[in-house]
Every structure is written in structure tokens, then in C-alpha cells.
Recover the amino acids of this structure.
């Protein structure tokens, strides 16, 4: 059993570890994927902010200069294409464009100088896009148009960095990224700063850097510093993290409960073994004594001796009564499992019931004891199952006598309080250690007496007491100190709804 239990623990620990590692691996992968997505969101936000700011300036120039913005696509016979943008008078006639292979410096407007034509040809050649390869080529064409437009417009009207930052903030918030950012515009050809919104005291190492080149011929770029997005990522993953944590917590609690149940079952099995041993011994004793007494009366012809006959009959009566009490308590164990079990409530005079219990306890007890009773008021009535209430109080009183040495002093107090009856039974016995107090009502549990002589029993009396009190909708608790005795406090409803 011990070996099997050890293997079960090892397998459960390995299972939980595997689940935890898999969850951690999956969540970590999701986190990195979300971080990558956030970086892409920021990149697209920069591109879109640049696009909006650029075309806003282009439209402004068109209105101010009364010129028409024209963007031309130039393609060759090999599938290459390039973009060109210019501003012409609105009333002018668009000159004819000749389409030639890109490596021949095409696009020769008649009014341009040779140097300008060479520069334009190089730019178009270097930025040519192969169209038709896949769908992404259309996006590349749009990006090239945006970058080509920068070459024309930036020399006339510089970039409005404040407007760019404002547009970028709006796009980041739309993407769920409420983060601070600062921007620098760099000339990559000579590594000079064109414009900047970065504070002088900013610790750039605490920010993520995103670079976006917005031109192709004269190298220019945005350097955008953003706050790290890890907390935004965690916030976006909060639902997944919470559900994963709850699943893991439920698994851990389930396995913990399984461990507790297995350990508890193991303890119950041990207690059952002890119970069986004790009950077997307890049952054999009265049977053996009764058998011996009857055998003596039969074989030794003592029926003519009235004194001896009465003595043996009295012994038989006591042992059979003891045997009957044991059988009754053992049968009471099944009551807790009966779903159709019902108490038979009736009006009970508590004073009379306790007097009867004390009287019968005095008859069967092997040692004298003294009981003092106090009732407030003098006559207390309550609704209860008479038989089970009798057994409850009889069990507690019997324990008080058994565990109180040679001179038991017992005090029984009862009082009415706010629709309840409170019963206190106090003894001057050996008391109970604090470590045992939480378990004395458990099935088959017996308190070790240490150096004290063993007291007969098998650990179901107080279990029966607690079970029946709970079925009466009452409560029971115990206060005890070793060497100073114990006090059992019972609270029962005075009436019950029918």
C-alpha cells in the first residue's frame, strides 16, 4: 500500500509538472507572438501616420500653388515598374511619356536637363518593383509612391513633426496601444537630426526603437521611441492568463483533495482495523463471561444456592446489557448514510430525561460519582427525538464518568436562550490534549491516554453524538485542558418546523 501510494504521488507530481510546463511554453509563445504583433502594429501606425501627414501636405501645396499633383507609373517589357510624381499647372497639357526599358534612364521630359534626367532615371531604376509576382507587389507599389512623393514635397514643404506625432498617437490608440512615444527625423546620409520631439533628459535605453525610412533616393528616416509594450501585451492576454491560472488551480486543488482523500482513507482503514480488533475483543468478553456464568449454574448445580444463583444471573444481566449497548452503537453507524432517516420529534422534559440518565448511569457504573444539576428555568421543554437525545446525553455522561479517575465530580447545566437550549456537561477528568480536540468526533478516533490505564471503547460514541446533534440542527463543541477536565457544550433548537 505504501509503495503504491508513493508511485501515485510521483505520477501526479509528474503530470502536474508536465501540464504546468506545457502551459508555460504555450503562454510564453503566445506572449512573444503578441509582442511581434505589437511591433508590426507600431510599424504600420508609423507608415499610416506618415502617409496621412504626407498627403495632407500634398493637398495643401495643390491648393496654395494651384497646381495638379500627378503620379505616373512607368513599366518596361520585363514586368518592371516605377513611380514618378510631379506638379503641373492645372490648365497645362500633360506631355507625352515614352515607355522604354528601365535601364535606359526612361522618362525624358523635354524641359528637363540631362543631369536631372539621369538622376530621375537612376531613382526609377533603383526603386523598380516587379509586378505580378504576388499580391504583395501592389503594396510595394503604394509604398514606392509614398516614398517618391516625399522626394518632391519635402523640398518644398518640410514634414510637420507635431502633426505626425498626433496622427501616430491616434493610430496607436486604435490598435489598443496606449503608450508614450517620441520621434526624431534623421538624414541617414550624414547621420544628422532634421527634427526631434525627444526630451533632452529622456533615457532612451528604457524605450523601444522603431526605424522607418520614408524616402528611397535621399535617405531619410523616422526614429520613433515607444514605451515597451509588455504590460499592454499582458493586459491583452489577461483573459487567457486568468483562465489558464484557474484551470491550473482547479487541477492542483483536485489533486490536493485526492491526496487528502487517499491519506484520509488510509487513516480510516487503519482505524477500522483497530475498531474491528477492539470490537472483537469487547464482544468476546461479555459473551465469555455470560457463557461461564451459565455453564457454572448448569454443571455445578448451584441453582439451590440462591445467593450464588442471583450473583451469576446478575453478572449475566450486566454483560448482556453491555453487549446490547455495544450492538446498538455499532448499528447507529449506518444512520448517517440513510437518506430516508427521519427523527421522531416530540415534547421532551429535559429535567426528567437527565434524572433518568443519571439514575441508570449510577446503576451500571463500576465506581461512585457525584452529579450536580442546574436548570434555568427549573423546567425546560424542547422538541427532540427522545431516544436519540437520551443516547446523546448518556454517551457524554458515560465518558465523563469513565475518564474522571476515582472520584468523578460532574456538573450538568441547562438554560433556555433565544429559542435554543444550551446544555453544558463538565467533568474533573484527565482532560484532552489540544492536538486531539479537532478529531475526537471523528469515526473510530480514540485519544491515546499516555500513562493512564486504557479505557474500554472503540471510537464511535462521540461520532454518533455529533451525527445525531447535527440531525437535530444543533451544534456541539468541547473545551478541555489536560489534567483539569473537559466541558461539552450542546446547543439545540427548542422547537422545529413540522
Amino acid at each position: 500500500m505504501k509503495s503504491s501510494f508513493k508511485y501515485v504521488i510521483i505520477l501526479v507530481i509528474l503530470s502536474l509538472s508536465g501540464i504546468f510546463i506545457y502551459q508555460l511554453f504555450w503562454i510564453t509563445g503566445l506572449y512573444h507572438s503578441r509582442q511581434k504583433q505589437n511591433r508590426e502594429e507600431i510599424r504600420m501606425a508609423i507608415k499610416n501616420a506618415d502617409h496621412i501627414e504626407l498627403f495632407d501636405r500634398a493637398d495643401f501645396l495643390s491648393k496654395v500653388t494651384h497646381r495638379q499633383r500627378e503620379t505616373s507609373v512607368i513599366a518596361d517589357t520585363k514586368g518592371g515598374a516605377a513611380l514618378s510624381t510631379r506638379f503641373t499647372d492645372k490648365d497645362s497639357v500633360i506631355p507625352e511619356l515614352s515607355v522604354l526599358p528601365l535601364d535606359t534612364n526612361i522618362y525624358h521630359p523635354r524641359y528637363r536637363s540631362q543631369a536631372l534626367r539621369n538622376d530621375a532615371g537612376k531613382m526609377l531604376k533603383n526603386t523598380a518593383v516587379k509586378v505580378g509576382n504576388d499580391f504583395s507587389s501592389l503594396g510595394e507599389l503604394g509604398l514606392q509612391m509614398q516614398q517618391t512623393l516625399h522626394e518632391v514635397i519635402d523640398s518644398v514643404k518640410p514634414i510637420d513633426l507635431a502633426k505626425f506625432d498626433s496622427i501616430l498617437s491616434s493610430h496607436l490608440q486604435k490598435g489598443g496601444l496606449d503608450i508614450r512615444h517620441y520621434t526624431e527625423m534623421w538624414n541617414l546620409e550624414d547621420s544628422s537630426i532634421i527634427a526631434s520631439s525627444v526630451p533632452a533628459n529622456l533615457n532612451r535605453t528604457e524605450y523601444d526603437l522603431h526605424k522607418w525610412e520614408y524616402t528611397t533616393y535621399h535617405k531619410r528616416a523616422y526614429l520613433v521611441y515607444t514605451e515597451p509594450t509588455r504590460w499592454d501585451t499582458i493586459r491583452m492576454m489577461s483573459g487567457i492568463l486568468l483562465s489558464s491560472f484557474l484551470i491550473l488551480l482547479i487541477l492542483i486543488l483536485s489533486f490536493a483533495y485526492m491526496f487528502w482523500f487517499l491519506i484520509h482513507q488510509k487513516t480510516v482503514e487503519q482505524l477500522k482495523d483497530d475498531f474491528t480488533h477492539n470490537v472483537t475483543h469487547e464482544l468476546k468478553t461479555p459473551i465469555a463471561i455470560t457463557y461461564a456464568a451459565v455453564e457454572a449454574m448448569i454443571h455445578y448445580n448451584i441453582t439451590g444456592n440462591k445467593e450464588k444463583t442471583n450473583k451469576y444471573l446478575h453478572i449475566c444481566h450486566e454483560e448482556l446489557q453491555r453487549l446490547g449497548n455495544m450492538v446498538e452503537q455499532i448499528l447507529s453507524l449506518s444512520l448517517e448514510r440513510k437518506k430516508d432517516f427521519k427523527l421522531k420529534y416530540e415534547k421532551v422534559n429535559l429535567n426528567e430525561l437527565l434524572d433518568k440518565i443519571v439514575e441508570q448511569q449510577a446503576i451500571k457504573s463500576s465506581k461512585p460519582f457525584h452529579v450536580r444539576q442546574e436548570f434555568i428555568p427549573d423546567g425546560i421543554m424542547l422538541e427532540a427525538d427522545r431516544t436519540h437525545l437520551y443516547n446523546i446525553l448518556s454517551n457524554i455522561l458515560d465518558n465523563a464518568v469513565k475518564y474522571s479517575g476515582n472520584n468523578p465530580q460532574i456538573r450538568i447545566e441547562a438554560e433556555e436562550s433565544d429559542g435554543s437550549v444550551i446544555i453544558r456537561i463538565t467533568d474533573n477528568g484527565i482532560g484532552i490534549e489540544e492536538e486531539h480536540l479537532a478529531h475526537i468526533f471523528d469515526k473510530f478516533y480514540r485519544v491515546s491516554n499516555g500513562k493512564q490505564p486504557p479505557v474500554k471503547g472503540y471510537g464511535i460514541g462521540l461520532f454518533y453524538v455529533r451525527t445525531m446533534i447535527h440531525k437535530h440542527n444543533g451544534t456541539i463543541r468541547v473545551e478541555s485542558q489536560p489534567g483539569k477536565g473537559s466541558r461539552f457544550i450542546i446547543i439545540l433548537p427548542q422547537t422545529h418546523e413540522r
Observations:
- The chain has three domains: 2-233, 237-334, 342-493.
- The two ends are 49 Å apart (CA to CA).
